[in-house]
Amino acid sequence: xxxxxxxxxxxxxxxxxxxxxxxxxxxxxxxxxxxxxxxxxxxxxxxxxxxxxxxxxxxxxxxxxxxxxxxxxxxxxxxxxxxxxxxxxxxxxxxxxxxxxxxxxxxxxxxxxxxxxxxxxxxxxxxxxxxxxxxxxxxxxxxxxxxxxxxxxxxxxxxxxxxxxxxxxx
Length: 170
Ligand SMILES: C[S@@+](CC[C@H](N)C(=O)[O-])C[C@H]1O[C@@H](n2cnc3c(N)ncnc32)[C@H](O)[C@@H]1O
Fold this sequence. Notes:
Elements: E1 13-16, H1 22-29, E2 34-38, H2 41-54, E3 59-62, E4 75-81, H3 92-102, E5 103-114, H4 128-134, E6 141-151, E7 160-169
Parallel strand pairs: 1-2, 1-4, 2-3, 4-5
Antiparallel strand pairs: 5-7, 6-7
Bound molecules: S-adenosylmethionine.
């Protein structure tokens, strides 16, 4: 995930669907307090081993992105790198509500997802309109920016087309 937004980070950071933790580890290495969550225990074990090897203080926990309220915590900054685009349209409202339950008002969500702006799009391309429909004032969000980006995949030499969205919790 391109973290040009790092300078704008504030408070505690949640990395939703952290996988093996590269983004969480990077952000934690910059001094932020970071919790990475995932449903995949094997990925979390790798993430914890990396943290130990690198001497980085960071927390990893098992959690379902659809039930983040169960964490009982709130975050000023939330990262989603490659998770939103894995969910079908009918799953998005539940995920977006779950994100809202743990994001402080005026906090910021950063989403990096496959875009439909080809050529050579990723497997679950998302349009800007879909992002704006999923995150809107009626469900507590305001899209601040959607910028073209790239996301690394095994199948794309130079990454696949992506959107990097900055979304405010209102
Ligand atoms: C494409 S990977 C991205 C991993 C990481 N964010 C990165 O950028 O390398 C998507 C991750 O989301 C996790 N995931 C999928 N569904 C989830 C859910 N319902 N709750 C939490 N994590 C989930 C997967 O286990 C996987 O680690």
